[in-house]
Amino acid sequence: MKSENRNHIFFNTWIKKLSVTFFVMIFLFQVNAQTFTAQMVLAARPTSLLSDWANHPEILNYIVTYYGGPIAGNYSAKIIVTFKDGAGNIIGTSDLNLLPARIFASGTIILQSKDVVLLQTIRFSGNVQRTINATGRLPEGNYQLSLQIVDAKSLQKLTAEIIRPFYVVSFQLPILMQPQNQMVLMAEQARSAITFRWTPLAPAPSTDRISYLLQIFEVMEGQNPMQAFRSNQPILNQQVIGVTQFVWQPQLYFADSSGNRKFIWTIQTLDSKGFGFNNGVGDGRSEPFWFEIKSAKEILKNRNE
To answer: What would the pLDDT profile of 152-208 be if each residue is shown by its tens digit?
Structure first.
């Protein structure tokens, strides 16, 4: 009888231990199987200026739910960010050695661009990195953004990779209008005021404030206009905001002589960070125009010759 009781007690104890072990295994399986879920909402045409993504919460929202609890506690994880071209080829991804861990508490959190796209931790491919270093921008084209959560230590994948497409638009730099290229201005009028006009940047950026920098260079003796443009210091660096024209009062002496005064001018279009709108080429300067200033006497003389 005693032997049967001992066997019964042993059997009950074994069943309890087995049940606890089975419960723990089921719990751990559930935690590992579905620790996180995530959703991503990405603007279809975000600004090409990557550093400005942090200033625009509407560009990216990453909704993460952690199924933790009193037993599981908080979770340390990393969010891997990967940029791909339109064909799905990787052009930049998070450096896991630089990527900081984020502590997730049980529940749902909405992360924005500034929380997720940490540019200082992303390594881009050679050509793309050089363009970003020079301009701060992604070149025009189709791209994909991928986000995935992994365990901070083991790097085990905790969510499926979420991929969303986006497009970086091309901009048409301003076209110079007045003074027209190779135009001759009368000194008697030019000495008091010269009006410069140009077309606006197109299309107008939706998330970036732009400004125009009017630059005028004087063409010195022995130079052609492009030599002056490339090597001389501008005699005017005028920032213009909100309009596409500027009236210059030269305050220069245009002598009534046979000598010509030549100038070359351009518009540099800048974003709010001081980078030129250039789609990866140049520095945001429009094709320059040059013009001459002559006295009425000199103009009449040239007409009669």
So the answer is: 999 999 999 999 999 988 788 999 999 999 999 988 888 889 999 999 998 888 767
Q: Which two tokens stand for residue 254?
A: 């245009």
Strands of the sheet containing 107-112, edge to edge, are 36-42, 60-66, 107-112
Burial of 37 (C-beta count, 10 Å sphere; 0-12/13-18/19+):
middle
**pLDDT for residue 276:** 81
Instruction: Give 150's pLDDT tier (boundaries 50, 70, 90).
Output: very high
| Cα–Cα nearest to 68, from 37, 32, 106 | 106
Q: Tell me how crowded residue 275 is: count the other CB atoms within 10 A of its CB.
A: 20
Encoded amino acid at 284, one letter: G
Q: What does the pLDDT read at residue 236?
A: 95
> Three-class SS of residue 144?
strand
| Residue 25 DSSP SS3 | helix
User: Domains in the chain and their CATH numbers?
Assistant: 34-168 (2.60.40.10), 176-304 (2.60.40.10)
Burial 202-229 (b: 16+ CB within 10 A, else e): eeebebbebebbbbbbbbeeebebeebb
> Any idea which residue has 């600004």 for tokens?
47
- Hey, what amino acid is at 152? A
pLDDT at 2: 46
pTM above 0.70, yes or no: no
